[in-house]
Design a protein that fits this description.
By secondary structure, the chain is α+β, with helices and mostly antiparallel strands. The chain has a single domain, classed as 2-Layer Sandwich (Alpha-Beta Plaits), CATH 3.30.70.100. It has three helices and four strands. It has a four-stranded antiparallel sheet. A hairpin with a 4-residue loop joins strand 2 and strand 3. The protein is globular.
Length: 116
């Protein structure tokens, strides 16, 4: 049976922006979960934030996609003081490596199977 508690974010009306954060974590875990929860709480307060999807492979690759209405919303999130502090701690403790890609979405659609 599938657990659908982590359904993907619905398609949005383009144009909008995505910030795609891919990472491989280190063995250090102290404080990571609490900080990730706090960041998710804070990003929801950014005007223009649309949602977020997460995925993690058994091998340790994690992908987080943040959806934003415009580039100003991404810039506001990037400059947020607590987010900047979490980024510094992430580089010092939690990540072996990561990449961040920001892109403008010009087409978007979704599909959902009808329920029984």
């Amino acid at each position: 049976m599938n657990d659908h508690s982590d359904l993907p974010v619905a398609a949005h009306e383009p144009p909008y922006y995505v910030a795609v954060f891919t990472s491989v974590r280190s063995d250090e875990d102290a404080g990571y979960g609490e900080t990730a929860d706090r960041m998710e709480e804070l990003v929801k307060q950014v005007p223009g934030y649309l949602g977020m999807d997460h995925a993690r492979t058994p091998g340790g690759l994690a992908i987080t996609v943040g959806y934003f209405r415009d580039e100003d919303a991404i810039k506001e999130w990037s400059a947020h003081a607590e987010h900047r502090a979490a980024q510094r701690r992430g580089r010092a403790e939690w990540y072996e490596r990561y990449t961040l890609h920001v892109a403008k979405v010009e087409r978007s659609h979704g599909y959902e199977r009808a329920g029984d």
